[in-house]
Design brief:
Structural class: alpha+beta
Largest sheet: 4 strands, antiparallel
CATH topology: Alpha-Beta Plaits
Number of helices: 3
CATH architecture: 2-Layer Sandwich
Strand order of the largest sheet: 2-3-1-4
Shape: globular
Length: 95
């Protein structure tokens, strides 16, 4: 299982557009055959910070996710163009 989080910050004026993009990206990502979990969150007390919790069956499924047309248009062409900062954390399950 591949698990990671992506934390991104955005400008306040982009908040509604970011939420729209995330709704579309989430719906499409959850339909991918190797996607186990894809959950975007707004960080409490930091309304311009988004944290996405993602799990994929294996590395091939994570790679597939990044190769999809919806990732290219909504993540790379949408979120990445508006984000101020981005941090990726790969997680290791303990139990």
């Amino acid at each position: 299982m591949i698990t990671f989080t992506v934390r991104m910050t955005f400008r306040s004026e982009d908040r509604e557009e970011i939420a729209r993009i995330l709704r579309e990206l989430t719906a499409a990502s959850r339909q991918e055959p190797g996607c186990v979990t894809y959950i975007p969150h707004r960080v409490e007390r930091e309304p311009d910070t988004i944290l996405i919790y993602e799990q994929y069956r294996d590395q091939a499924a994570a790679d597939f996710h990044r190769s999809t047309p919806h990732f290219a248009s909504l993540a790379v062409g949408g979120l990445y163009q508006r984000m101020l900062d981005r941090t990726l954390e790969v997680l290791e399950a303990l139990a």
